[in-house]
Amino acid sequence: MADPQPRPDTGAPPSGPVSGPGAGRKLVLDPARAAALDVLKAVRVDGAYTNLVLPAAIRHYHLEGRDAAFATELASGTIRRRGTYDAILAACTDRPLSKVEARVLDALRIGTHQLLSMRVPDHAAISTTVDLVRARVNTGAGNFVNAVLRAVSEHDLDEWIEKVTPDARSSPTRYAAIAFSHPEWVVDELREAVGREELHALLAADNHNPRVTLVARPGRARREELPGEPTPFSPYGVLLDGGDPGAVPAVAEGRAAVQDEGSQLVALALAEAPLEGRDELWLDLCAGPGGKSGLLAALAAQRGAALVSSERLPARARLVRRTLMTADGLAPGAVGVVAADGALAPYRAGSFDRVLVDAPCTGLGALRRRPEARWRRKPDDLFTLVMLQRQLTRAALDLVRPGGLVLYSTCSPVMSETSSVVTSVNGARMDAELADLGPQFSGVPRSEGPVSGTVQLWPHRHGTDAMFMALFRRLP
Questions:
Q1: Closest CA to 399 of 357, 339, 430, 336
Q2: Contact (CB, 8 A) for 305 and 333
Q3: Which of 92, 286, 361, 411 is catalytic?
């Protein structure tokens, strides 16, 4: 039915004897599953980001190849499908999930993901999860997990969704929230953005593990030297079939990088927009962690232009600098990385010819890559973010010269972060106009944004994050 998942193999055989507390026998703790459980705890307790903590867990347990892929899918997939699994687990327990110890609930979710969405035999999914809980919690908790997961194994995912969801016609939001594992407020926001007919396709795409995308930074690397399949829309990207992207020589040398195709298209939209007059100095106003700056700097260097990268938080500014560094200093095209608050327009008015405002946002367009974001964001976040987005865009228009360009982008399709910001800024600034991005995206089907001349990419249509773009031109 809805949202079929890829079902990876079980990974390497369990290894490493671990004495279980009170178990009366030697337990065998599978390192890939232990790594996934550690990731879930870090996300839950420390507010960690899955994609950042996973590599550390994989290194800690010395996982490689299939074991690393198994741990990655187990952790990321479990977090993505938490809403669905919690509804199923609630139907299989004799107590509210709020009364289940957090460590045990994490393990139950991991076991459920193996049973319902991975190619793991039922007995292996159950026994390894039970051993994990007996080793990490206690024998009694292991017995509880054994009973619950046996109940989960009685039905497949489609059957469970039919059992635990309300009628889709009478309760469409609640149905979608459970069936596709998104908070109800997120379902409502995405429905408004994409429309009722495509909502389920979008929600399903959010639950699929995206392929790793690389970008060859022009002038420093050629796409042909990167392994993988060329991306359909960016002339610099490739889609990897697997393996460690860090092992690709061009990536290890900083001449290429991991970057979603949608983010590549944001940088290209600014760099390739027609501009009359001077074209010498560009600004990335919200540059952290630096991916778009890396591509913009390379594009600027080819034009004889220079890029300034600005980031409010010093720690993120350091990430930008690290992204732009080469053995000989900053990458060609990059002339400086500055820790400054872009909302305060911290540079001389009219200094820049092109400015990118890749604004802080809810990130609801990148839920494939940031599985925890759907559970972490709250509706109240929107007001603060929208106010900041407007302020940053107004500041960028102050910093660009007459005739210059400002590209506003978000990795969110939410209307208050896209069309509302654009119409508000456009209506308030008599010295700026909304330019048409359509000609630049003529080769990208069905990419029209909610406001004429803007662009909206989608995971289910384009295979990218749901990037939104609007181009402003400062009037002479």
A1: 357
A2: yes
A3: 411
CA-closest candidate to residue 441, choices 417, 467, 473, 415: 467
- Can you state the angle between helices 139-152 and 102-117, rounded to 10 degrees? 30
Q: Which two tokens stand for residue 218?
A: 């022009």
pLDDT at position 26 is 63
- 261-474 classified as CATH 3.40.50.1360: no
Range 444-462 average pLDDT: 98
Q: pTM higher than 0.90, yes or no?
A: yes
411 belongs to the catalytic site: yes
Q: Do residues 323 and 263 lie in contact, with contact meaning Cβ atoms separated by under 8 Å?
A: no
**Cis peptide leading into 289, omega within 30 of 0?**
yes
Name residues whose C-beta falls within 8 Å of residue 42's C-beta, 6 or more positions apart in sequence. Answer: 48, 53, 57
Residues 347, 298: Cα–Cα separation, whole Å: 22
- What contacts 24+ positions apart, CB below 8 Å, involve 129-135? 129/33, 131/20, 131/27, 131/28, 131/29, 131/30, 132/29, 132/30, 132/33, 132/34, 132/37, 132/107, 133/103, 133/104, 133/107, 134/20, 134/21, 134/23, 134/27, 135/18, 135/20, 135/21, 135/27, 135/29
Task: Work out the pLDDT band at 2, boundaries 50, 70, 90.
Answer: very low
Identify the three-state secondary structure at position 369.
coil
Enumerate the β-bridge partners of residue 455. 448, 469
Half-sphere exposure of 238 (CA within 13 A, CB side): 20
Q: Work out the average pLDDT over 242-270.
A: 95
Q: Where are the domains of the chain?
A: 17-157, 165-206, 261-474
Q: How many residues does the chain have?
A: 476
Q: What percent of the chain has pLDDT over 70?
A: 94
Q: 17-157 falls under which CATH superfamily? A: NusB-like (1.10.940.10)
Angle at 350 between CA 348 and CA 352, to 5 degrees: 90
Residue 405's SS3 state is strand
Please spell the DSSP secondary structure of 44-106, one letter per residue: HHH---HHHHHHHHHHHTT--HHHHHHHHHHHHHHHHTHHHHHHHHHHH-SS-GGGS-HHHHH
The span from the first CA to the last CA of the chain, in angstroms, equals: 55
The pLDDT, as a whole number, for residue 328 is 85
Q: What is the pLDDT of residues 91-108, one digit of tens each?
A: 999 999 999 999 999 999
